[in-house]
Amino acid sequence: MDLLGKDAITLEKDKQVTKFQEGILPWAIQNPTALVFDEYDAGRPDVMFVIQRVLEVDGRLTLLDQNRVLTPNPFFRLFATANTVGLGDSTGLYHGTQQINQGQMDRWQIVSCLNYLSVELETKVVLSKVKNLDNKKGSEIVKNMIELANLTREGFKNGDISNLMSPRTVISWAENYQIFSDLVSSFELSFLNKCDETEKPIIAEYFQRCFDQETSDSISNLIDQD
């Protein structure tokens, strides 16, 4: 109902009148609008089939209850983002997602994959969020944070660990570093405490590779136990 629309009670000349209120999709399709469906692979099947109508070549949307056929504005554009590219998730990392109907995937004319940014670009993103670190010393610290994040991403890809640091996690680490003024404590609070106990020694080793400083007793003990 939120997507297509629903009947709503409105007041006209002091009288209650039931009128159809357009949802986001009928409104957007008639306007020069870019509509973005985030987390697309978490959509329910019945909802996805509604969207599938718009993905046809002519892109017309039929509102059966209203006996109306909507023709898209020439400048209407539809985008969707998904972590699994419609293939579903077997790792459990993106729980709640599901496979997208192949017939629907065939209707998307352009599919683009976005990998992680380079260290330089990701550094700019983090510094734009944590402006107090936008100096020579702070930039070096953030670069090392991102180098560590890249190690976790490679470790995840190789099956060594089951969790990884996203750019959002790096930003959280940088923000916590501002609060606690301690790299190790902020790292533990932002990422390490989320990890499986058996994988913490590997992650602690990543930390020591990227930061030339003494680690906390908790991290050092993890490495010694390994």
Order of helices and strands: EEHEHEEEHHHHHHH
Mean pLDDT, nearest integer?
85
Query: Fraction of residues in helices?
Result: 40-55%
Radius of gyration, CA atoms, in whole angstroms? 24 Å
**Tally of individual domains:** 2
Q: Order of strands side by side in the largest beta sheet?
A: 1-2
In DSSP terms (H or I, runs of 4 or more residues), the helix count works out at: 9
* Gross morphology: elongated
Query: In percent terms, what proportion of residues is strand?
Result: 5-15%
> Structural class from helices and strands?
alpha+beta
Taking the alpha carbons of the first and last residues, their distance comes to 55 Å
**Would you report the number of β strands?**
6
Largest sheet: 2 strands, antiparallel
Quick recap of the structure?
The protein is an alpha+beta fold and 226 residues long. Helices cover 42% and strands 13% of the residues.
What does this structure look like?
With 226 residues, the chain is of the alpha+beta class. Helix content is 42%, strand content 13%. It contains 9 helices and 6 strands, in the order E-E-H-E-H-E-E-E-H-H-H-H-H-H-H. Strand 1 and strand 2 (15-22) form a beta hairpin. The longest helix is centred in the middle third of the chain and has 22 residues, at 136-157. It starts with a strand and ends with a helix.
